[in-house]
Design a protein that fits this description.
This protein has eleven helices and six strands. With 380 residues, it is α/β, with parallel strands linked by helices. Strand 1, helix 11 and strand 2 form a beta-alpha-beta unit. It starts with 9 loop residues before the first helix and ends in an 8-residue tail after the last strand.
Length: 380
């Protein structure tokens, strides 16, 4: 079993999905908020500043937390528009001339977001964001009679950092993709090898079991001496056991096989069929089914027991029908281990377990029983 598949995209490779990234994201947003709050002198009205902070904070969280590689186009477009929209909201409220350059802090912070967007595989949108921010700053400076370059120079000053991040992303993203592809190929090889090993081990186990139970009878038959009644019964029981392994592998465990053998030796007709409902089930669920089926087989003294693993699209996983001189009983096991028992037997389900240790995948589910009188058996 493979414990970990490793990162599946660049986001996971950089650890953007870890709790530490959430903490760092919160710290960055707090630092941005603090920096903006320290530069509110002369800003009027004040409300554009918190609005811009909220927009940029949302863009930061989206950029780091959104799944996919590259980041989904809609999420990337939202991040790309955050800086120019925030700038268009904030700039009309700042004083002219500026008291200090930090009053138009959005451009510098946007460079950080655009650089990360390059790493997330959306460099064109990062450059679109930078261009639109440049247009907004230039328009603001022209509308306030400062000249186009007075405003445009602010985002232009940060273009160099974006160029560097673009070059880095172009250089390293193919390498990351190659690393991830190699890791995935290696995991597939390991999984294939594990599957082959498991199949070989299962084959060896089955062969060893077959050799243990069948060899003595085959050697006895080879002598040519007529078989006794007990030996003929042993052959019939062995044939039934092998048939169970072929037709109902999911129902066969050492305990279930022993209980079925004992029931058949008492004259009970035992039929087991597997239609796939337990394929991929948790080990706890399989063990619970074996416990319930084993108990039902122990309960049978005559008549028949029919056990069927239902197809995966049914409400129940396993149906056990038992009919004998004591009456008729039907046991249904649901997908979460719930046991329902319908019986008109003299001692209904006296050996059928009533409780299950909560399974790891759903600890809130227990098992109860429900006794009613059986009228029909429509599902088997």
């Amino acid at each position: 079993m493979i414990a970990s598949r490793g990162p599946s995209d660049v986001r996971e490779f950089f650890g953007f999905d870890t709790p530490l990234t959430g903490v760092l994201t919160g710290a960055v947003v707090v630092a941005m908020t603090y920096g903006a709050a320290q530069n509110l002198d002369g800003v009027s009205p004040i409300w554009p500043a918190p609005v811009a902070i909220v927009i940029m904070a949302a863009a930061t969280i989206t950029l780091l937390m959104a799944p996919g590689d590259p980041i989904h186009s809609r999420a990337a477009l939202m991040v790309a528009l955050a800086a120019p929209v925030s700038s268009a909201i904030l700039l009309p409220a700042v004083p002219v001339p500026l008291d200090n350059i930090n009053q138009v802090w959005i451009s510098g912070y946007a460079t950080l977001l655009n650089g990360l967007m390059c790493l997330r595989g959306r460099a064109p949108l990062a450059w679109l964001s930078a261009f639109l921010t440049l247009v907004v700053y230039g328009t603001w400076s022209v509308s306030t009679d400062q000249g186009v370059m007075e405003g445009a120079a602010i985002p232009l000053f940060n273009i160099g950092a974006l160029v560097g991040m673009t070059v880095v992303s172009i250089a390293i993203r193919p390498t990351f993709r190659s690393i991830l592809a190699l890791r995935e190929a290696n995991l597939q090889r390991v999984a294939s090898a594990s599957t082959v090993t498991a199949v070989q081990q299962e084959r060896n186990t089955r062969l060893a079991e077959l050799d243990e139970v069948a060899r003595p009878l085959l050697m006895r038959i080879a002598t040519g001496v007529p078989l006794t009644a007990a030996e003929r019964q042993a052959c019939e029981l062995l044939e039934a056991h092998l048939r169970d392994q072929l037709r109902a592998a999911a129902l066969v465990s050492p305990e279930t096989a022993a209980a079925a053998r004992e029931a058949r030796a008492r004259g009970v007709e035992v039929t087991m069929i597997d239609d796939g409902g337990l394929d991929g089930a948790f080990e706890e669920m399989r063990s619970w089914v074996h416990i319930v089926v084993t108990a039902a087989l122990h309960d049978a003294r005559d008549g028949y027991v029919r056990v069927r693993v239902l197809p995966m699209d049914r409400d129940h996983v396993v149906i056990v029908n038992r009919n004998g001189s004591s009456g008729t009983e039907r046991i249904c096991i649901g997908k979460k281990g719930l046991v329902e028992r319908y019986s008109d037997a003299e001692h209904p389900g006296r050996n059928t377990p009533h409780l299950i240790t909560p399974a790891k995948y759903d600890p809130s589910i227990g098992v109860t029983t429900k006794d009613v009188y059986l009228t029909t058996d429509p599902e088997v």
